[in-house]
Specification:
It is a single chain. By secondary structure, the protein is an all-alpha fold. 83% of the residues lie in helices and 0% in strands. It has helices at 2-27, 30-56, 62-79, 84-92. Helix 1 runs antiparallel to helix 2 (30-56) and helix 1 (2-27) packs parallel to helix 3 (62-79). The chain has one domain.
Amino acid sequence: MRIYILVFIFQVFFNVFKTLEIKYTYEHKVRALLFNSVWINLASLATSYLSLERLFHGDWLVIIAYTAGSVLGKWIAMEKVEDYRRIVYEFLNRNK
């Protein structure tokens, strides 16, 4: 059970960091992008290792934890991380 929770958590973090990578690239924040890349790689390595280890032992339930963590991570990244493009758009169009 502990492995499923770890896979789930690492997938959530991986997807949030991946979305932040796109954001930092768009905003040209090199320092933040480099630190974010380290976290992406660590989360990716951890989730891949744990998931593949369980799959090689015939434990197919780890796919559910992997997928659920991915979906939740994408939702958090899209809904909870501030959308700067929308803020700029609203600022520029407030006088119209």
